[in-house]
Amino acid sequence: MKLHELLSIEKQQASQVSVLIQDTLQKFGKEHFFKGWVKRLKLIKDSPDNAAVEAAGSDTREVVTTVADTLEYMLKHWGSSEDVQFKKNKANQLAKADVVFGGAVITDVPIDELMGLEARLTKLREVFQAVPTLDATKAWVPSQVKEGVLKAVVDDVTTKTEKVVTPVVLYEATKEHPAQVKEVSKDEVVGTFTTTNFSGAVTSLQKANALERIDDLIGEIKKARMRANCQEVPNAKIGDELAKYLLEPFR
Predict the structure, then answer these.
(1) Hey, CA dihedral for 236, 224, 14, 8, is it positive or negative?
(2) Where does 146-234 show beta strands of DSSP type E?
């Protein structure tokens, strides 16, 4: 049997044993499974009528099961499940594979490391996916500010305005009426803002290349895990021996 074949039944067996243990706990909580009796009525006078009364007053209940039988049934299945766990862990000691990436090779990586590394790299990919990228509408060049900081080639220029109020004569003054004047406000440009933009983000191409690299690595880890899972499972058992030891006080 290959390791991957053993793994396919491991969870199912463990689940069945878990249910069986719960059933056994419930059975041990119900005394009627383990109690029996023979109750006889004996009247002082012997007569046909009293014989009928004696028969009606007698009661018998057989013991449904014993503690030993109940434990034996449970431990039989528990032992089989434990054998699977034992074989898996023995095989895991032998299961390993090489990981090839970017022209490099890491040899004899244990199966537990391969499985854990696959999960951790998948989580790490979320970080790579969240990497911020540069504004593609701007051209960027290396800056002198700091290694890795880019500067936009073209500055952003905006104007600064202020509201200016000027009087506007609506009607000239006459002998009869004074002049009518209204204040009108308008925005006038009084200066300019020049913004030089810097960024520590990366290009979309850099991010895409990084994601491709981590995806390739995850793929190689998966392949290595599958190769390691082809390890032959040793014919090792432990369940029966443990079950016999645990049952011995009840025999």
Answers:
(1) negative
(2) 150-152, 156-171, 180-195, 198-199
Amino acid present at 205: L
Helix (H) or strand (E) holding 214: helix 204-228
Give the up-direction half-sphere exposure of residue 139: CA atoms within 13 A in the CB hemisphere. Answer: 3
Residues 17, 79 contacting (CB under 8 angstroms): no
Phi, psi of 205 (to 5 degrees): -65, -40
3-state DSSP assignment of residue 172: coil
> The pTM is what?
0.70
> With contact defined as beta carbons under 8 Å apart, do 247 and 71 qualify?
yes
Mean of pLDDT over the chain? 92
For range 209-213, the mean pLDDT: 97
- Alpha carbon 29 to chain centroid distance? 36
Residues contacting 145, CB < 8 A, separation 6+: 151, 198
Give the model's pLDDT for residue 206.
95
- Judged against a pLDDT cut of 80, whether residue 39 lies above it is answered with yes
Q: What is the pLDDT of residues 46-89, one digit of tens each?
A: 998 899 999 999 999 888 899 999 999 999 999 999 999 999 99
**Where in the chain are the domains?**
1-95+237-251, 140-199
Residue tagged 């719960």 (tokens): 22
Vertex 159, ends 155 and 165: CA angle to 5°? 175
Query: Which residues in 99-128 are b (16+ Cβ under 10 Å) and which e?
Result: beeeeeeeeebebebbeebbeebeeebeee
CA angle 7, 12, 18 (to 5 degrees): 125
Q: Token digits for 138?
A: 């701007």
